[in-house]
Structure formats: C-alpha cells, structure tokens
Design brief:
single chain, alpha+beta, Nucleotidyltransferase, domain 5, 7-stranded mixed beta sheet, 27 helices, globular, transferase, ATPase_NBD
Length: 787
C-alpha cells in the first residue's frame, strides 16, 4: 500500500501472531483504522514449507517453526517502516496464538544482544531454540499427559479448584510433561527458558525478557490464582510447587521449571516497557514508544469487541470458544477462568469465563467433503433441513463428531456417533441431515454448558438478563415461578429449565470463518434466543472471501485490533498520570468503559459515520448501505481471487439446477455427496450400504492427520477436485457461498463496529429447547461410555 502521511497525530499499533499469518493493525486516537499489514507464512516464507502456517504429522501433532516467526517479524517491521510513519506510533500492543518457545540455555540470563545493521533472523538462528518446531493450540499430542496430570491432582474438580482449569491438551503443564517423558533428554537438558508465544513477541519488541501476564499464567495449569482480596483487589497468586514437581518428575526439576517460567505480571493495566533500542535504530521508532503487555489471541479478540455483562463472544475456528464476562473467581471443571487481561491492580477484580471445543473446523470441513461439494452446498443444506434433522417431534436426529481429544466432560470420548429415535446408527437415513446435525450439536453443546455455568454463580447475581427487543421479558422471579421451573427441570432430568431463556446471553457476538454462513449465524440466534452481532470488519471482509479464517487483504484481524485498542488505553492512562498524577482524574475508567467512550466520541464528532472497516475504504468511512449489503463501508477494489472464484452469474446457477431436474436420480446424492444443484428438490430418505462412517474415514487416513485445509479451509476446496466428496461422485460446477449481510443495526452497536446479522426467534428457540433434554441424555451416555 502507498506510504501514509509522515506527520500527524498519534498512532497505535497492534500485532497478532496467528497460525497462518503475522498481522498488524494501526489505529489513531479515536480508534479509526489507519493501516493494515500482514505477512502470510505459506506464500511469503515458502522456504519453511508449511501449510496454513503449520506442520501436520500422522497422529495429533501440529507444530510450527519458531524461526519462521522471527523472519516474519523482520518482514512485517520492514513493511511498517516503509508504508507508515512509525515515529507517530506511541504505543504497541499485541497477542499471539497459544504456543511455547523453548530457548536454549546459551542466551540466558540476558536477552541476546542485537546488531541494528542485521535483521532478527540472522541473529537468532534455529539453533537458538532447543525445540525448533513447537506445538500449537491445535496439537493434541499431549492429551493423555493432561489426563494423567489431572488424575494425579485428584480429578477434574480438584484440579480446577487448584489451578483454575481442568485437563486439556493445550496446557503448558501437559506440553512440558510430554517433552520430558517422550522427547529425547537433550531437549530438556539444553533448555534454559520457556516463553509463551505472546511473551516471546513482546520480548522481541522490548529487547529484554518480558514476564507472563496472569491471564495467560492461569492457562498453563501450573498457576494458583489467589482470588480477590478483602477490598476486591487481587491477592498474590503463585506457581504451584506441587504441580511443578509432578511435571518435572522431582522437586529439583520442579524448581528448574520455576526458573524457566519467570515471574508473573499481576496487573495488566500498565506498560510493560519501552521499545528496544534495536528497533529504534533499525526501523526509526521513537525511543519513548510504550510496549504494553501482550496476551493470548482469543483474549485480545475478546477485548476488541468490548462485550457487556450478559454478552457471549462465540468464535468459530480451529477451536470453537465461548467467552463471557465473569464477576467472581469460582473455578470448576465446567469452564476455564482467567483474570481480565486489561485491568488495574486497584480495580475490583474481573474475570473471563471460557468454554472450548476442539472439534470445530475439522469436523465441519470433513462433513463438507463427505456430503457436499462446496461450502455453498453445505450452507444451503443446513438452511433447508428442519431443526433436529426432521419435521417430526419424536424422531429428531443427533450427531457427535468427536475426532480429537477434548476437555471435560468428553475428555475420554473419541469417534463419530449418530442417533435416530434415541438409537445409535452408522448413518442417517437422510444423508442431507448430516451438516445441520453437526452444527446443531456444536452450538447446543455451548448452550447446555452455558446453563450449567450460570448455576455456579460465576457470572454474578444478575442472571435474569434484560432481553430488550428479543422477547417479552419474564416478570420478576417468584417462589412459585422458581418452583415451577425447578419442577420442569426435574421432570426432564436436567439441572435447568431449557425453556427459560432469561438466563441466556443478551447478545451473541460471533467471529470466525464459519460465522460467515447465514445458516450458522441464524442457528446461534435460534439456540440462544438472542440477536447475533458480528464485527463490521468481518462482515465486509466476508463479501470478498466468504470462508477463510484469515481476513481479506486490507482488512484487520480482530485480535490485532484488540492489541491496538489496548495500546491506546495504556497510552491514555500513562499520559493522564504524567499530566495529572492520576488517570482517574481525567475520567479514564476500565478498559471497556474507555473504549466505548472513545467510540462514542468519534461517532458524535463524525456525524454518526461508521468505523472504517478496511484500508481500501475512504477515510472516515461511508454513510451507510443498510441491509442486504456489507455493513457500512465499501470493501473497495476486489482482489483477483475474489473476482474470479467467488463471483458467478445467478443465471448460470439457475440453468444448472434446471438441467439437473431430469437426471437427479443419477446424481451424486446416492454416492453420498450432495452438490449445489441437488439441493433444490426432496430426496427420499435412505441409509448407506457401507459400515461405520468412522471406519470408512479412518481407513483412508484422513482422521489420523487432518490437513491444514481443515483449520483454514479453502473456500473452493472440494469444488472440482477428485478428492472432493465421496469417491466416484460426479462433481458439478459450484456456486458462490453467499455470506452474511448486515441488518439494520442500532447506533449503540454500530458506533463500536458491530453489525446485526441475525435476529432472535422465540419459536425456533422453543423448538431447540424441546431437543435439549434428549441431547443432554445422549451426551451423558457418551461420557459414561454406554454407547
């Protein structure tokens, strides 16, 4: 992109180390988007031979080369210094995917000295790291080690009470245990320090070791959070010596791990340090540029959305997550709990509760390949099949695609399970039900787990959310009403009333590629009976690239925006403290409060102009486009990919469907795959003649090593390749996936960059409420190994 102006007001940089790219977003003081840069690992660093930024091997291993991150940072900083005036950048924030960097003991205890005449990668070669290719969040090779650790700590309840989370393969404790037990001893013996990827990135920017934030420490499985003190402030958490001893194998090795980890920064609401002299001399940054604490990518994306109490942030990706504000520290096995990463030590402690599912993009892409030929056909199948896979009330269909080891309560369950009329079957009689039943299972799981989480009181006492225009708000709870709901729940064998939506989220804020499907957005709104909102940046990006986890060219990543917002907040606090001695004296409140204030101030000053969603849009945004479009700003010049692959004439699709009418009985439906042209008419119910679907899939090896196409799916994957769908299928031409579009959105959401993409539907909610008891019963049977 052309260089930006070389003089002007302050700018704020957010960095994001994602799985497939290293991204940067730049905003100004009013949080208007100014610049976007990125380095794509596969295309710009082909020498590392990654796919989607990762290596996959048979089994559950997903790794990535750390040296690739170092070289990508060189490339990104070159782009930033060439295209933007970096002297205007006053503060830098950032985040990274969940991964670990294993440093050799050679550069310890001081951070390696760097020569500004040379790039990073020439001074930090691969042999700097004792583990050159590090596992990432999608890696489940440490799942059995996580379960072993959980058992040694007394089970999921006792482990959660001790370290705030129960077993999952992403725990740093489990990764350490696996390396010690399964890798050669020289990896362990040569290690001098370990850092989470976010710490690593921050250290590269600062030029010295940066401590881990407490929010990330709580995700390691080794940190004991002390909870709030008498006045609501934080007590002193600590590394759990007992857990460290288990991971290290003995007390001495446990102490060694403690030195590897370093100290933990409890307060996230202050600067970490200033930028390194190396970056100032090489790229021209100012020496007083603030560097804020870096955090996890999912927490940074959460910060960018400024959720209110009662909101749920539902992210679809390689791992599906649901995050929501929590008022209390009440750890249980039902969820993970983190201190809010952007709060002062003097604030009343706030937390974020998180529900996760590893079986996310991989099952969705597998179902696409098995039963359809494109994401467009997948979306249309979900749209035309009725809730529960059938019209009848008593013959609903259920499926559980558990391809990877997950967390409690499904930590010991693996396989593909389908049920018709409560009976396990190898395949549904109506193959078209598979895509919808998969998505329903994924979303219903979050709805069920949300209700169980609410019952713990972790989200606070105000569980009867104000539903606004969602539906008529129930009256205040009465003893009779509570008794009635309790009786309903008991009669259904549940701990909650599935027909009571007053405890469900007020709004669903969705992100991730799968949320671009209208059917997915509508399904989320139906299951939770809540309006669904999506970042306007993603709505407009989806008009260019409908299904890709990475944003389209020129559009910012949400996690990098969260880093930029955090940098702006810290800079405002530091400036206020320097001028007035206290940030409180200038009206600066908590993070969300301040970010909403800045958005509101810009909204008023610009005459209600929506936020700019990409660098191709005119500065200051556009007046608006209303429904049936992107959001409020045009997405500018379309890339060649978007123009040639995703745009097809509607007339051609209609003609193709008409030609299919005469020979649909010979189409790919009866071979197990559905094409776009097959979705216009009813196909009689049938059962496949093959055995277990799981057996047929695993015999081909696709479950053993899911490709990176599953984690960052190609929108055209399977559209015309021999591998798309089931063998022997005649593959027709595909049509474009029509992504979600913005509906009329209130000013309160529009000014912070949200667009409504689906409405609540109480009738549809009641349909799913009737399904919940049977879903819970079947899931319970799976957990107890009864099927």
């Amino acid at each position: 992109m052309p260089p930006g102006p070389k003089t002007g007001p302050a700018l704020f940089l957010g960095l994001e180390l994602a799985t497939d790219q290293l991204r940067a977003s730049i905003v100004d003081e009013s949080l208007e988007l100014v610049g976007v840069e990125c380095v794509d690992f596969d295309t710009e660093l082909p020498e590392f031979q990654t796919q989607g930024g990762i290596f996959t091997t048979p089994g559950d291993a997903y790794t990535t080369p750390v040296d690739m991150w170092v070289k990508a940072l060189d490339f990104l900083l070159e782009k930033l210094s060439r295209n933007h005036d970096v002297t205007r950048i006053k503060s830098i924030g950032g985040c990274a995917q969940h991964a670990v960097v294993w440093w050799k003991s050679t550069p310890i205890p001081s951070f390696p000295a760097l020569d500004p005449r040379l790039p990073f990668h020439s001074q930090l070669p691969t042999n700097t790291f004792s583990l050159p290719n590090t596992p990432i969040a999608q890696d489940t090779s440490a799942h059995t080690h996580a379960l072993a650790l959980e058992a040694l700590l007394g089970g999921p309840d006792l482990m959660a009470a001790r370290v705030g989370t129960c077993a999952n393969a992403s725990l740093l404790a489990a990764q350490l245990l696996r390396v010690r037990e399964s890798w050669t001893s020289d990896v362990w013996s040569r290690t001098g320090k370990i850092q989470l990827a976010s710490q690593f990135m921050a250290s590269m920017i600062v030029g010295e070791w940066v401590n881990m934030g407490e929010a990330e420490a709580c995700a390691t499985g080794m940190w004991g959070h002390a909870g709030p003190g008498a006045q609501g402030t934080s007590g002193l958490g600590r590394w759990d010596e007992g857990v460290l001893e288990i991971v290290g194998g003995n007390r001495e090795e446990g102490r060694r791990i403690r030195t590897w980890l370093g100290d933990v920064e409890i307060a996230g609401g202050r600067k970490a340090a200033h930028i390194s002299r190396y970056l100032c001399e090489r790229y021209g940054f100012e020496s007083d540029t603030i560097v804020t604490p870096f955090t996890s990518d999912y927490l940074s994306a959460y910060l960018s959305l400024c959720p209110s109490p009662g909101d749920a942030v539902l992210s679809f990706g390689p791992m599906d997550t649901l995050l929501t504000p929590a008022q209390h520290y009440l750890p249980t096995r039902l969820y993970s709990l983190f201190p809010h990463p952007a709060q002062d030590a003097c604030e009343k402690r706030r937390y974020i509760a998180m529900l996760t599912s590893r079986n996310a993009d991989v099952p969705r892409a597998l179902v696409r390949d098995m039963y359809t030929k494109s994401w467009s056909a997948f979306d249309r199948l979900v749209a035309i099949v009725p809730p529960g896979g059938s019209i009848g009330l008593d013959d609903k269909l259920f499926s559980f695609w558990l391809l990877q080891g997950d967390s409690y309560p499904l930590s010991h369950v693996k396989g593909i399970y389908r049920f018709e009329t409560g009976i396990k079957v190898n395949e549904f009689r109506d193959l078209r039900a598979n895509p919808r039943c998969l998505l329903e299972s994924q979303v219903l799981s979050f709805r069920f787990r949300w209700s169980r989480m609410i019952a713990t009181g972790v989200l606070g006492s105000n569980i009867n959310r104000s539903r606004g225009n969602v539906a008529q708000t129930p009256g205040p709870p009465t003893p009779q009403g509570q008794s009635s709901r309790s009786n309903i729940a008991s009669s259904l064998g549940l701990s909650f009333d599935p027909y009571d939506y007053s405890t469900l989220p007020t709004r669903i804020l969705v992100t991730g590629a799968a949320a671009n499907f209208p059917s997915v957005a509508n399904l989320a709104g139906d299951v939770f009976n809540a309006p669904v909102f999506m970042p306007s940046t993603q709505v407009d990006s989806a008009q260019v690239v409908p299904h890709r986890n990475a944003p389209a060219t020129g559009f910012p990543g949400r996690a990098s925006l969260g880093g930029a917002y955090f940098a702006r907040w810290i800079w405002g606090k530091e400036r206020s403290s320097a001028v007035g001695g206290s940030s409180a004296g200038r009206g600066l409140g908590g993070f969300e409060e301040e970010i909403r204030r800045l958005h509101g101030k810009r909204w008023v000053a610009s005459g209600a102009t929506p936020l700019r969603t990409n660098v191709n849009a005119p500065a200051g945004g556009n007046g608006g486009s209303g429904a049936n479009s992107g959001t409020s700003t045009p997405y500018g010049h379309r890339s060649g990919l978007g123009s040639t692959i995703f745009v097809e004439e509607d007339e051609e699709e209609v003609e193709e469907m008409e030609r299919a009418e005469s020979n649909i009985l010979n189409s790919s439906v009866f071979a197990g795959g559905f094409a776009d042209r097959d979705l216009g008419r009813d196909i009689s119910r049938m059962r496949t003649l093959t055995g277990s679907t799981l057996d047929s899939v695993t015999s081909g090896g696709s479950l053993g090593a899911p490709s990176s196409a599953f984690t960052t799916p190609d929108p055209n994957a399977g559209a015309g390749s021999p591998g798309g769908g089931v063998a022997g299928v005649v593959v027709p031409s595909t049509t474009t996936l029509t992504p979600v579009t913005a509906m009329p959105t209130s000013d309160a959401e529009a000014q912070i960059g949200l667009a409504k993409v689906a409405e609540a539907d109480v009738d549809a909610f009641m349909t799913y409420a009737a399904i919940v008891p049977e879903y819970c019963r079947l899931e319970g049977m799976l957990c107890k190994s009864l099927v």
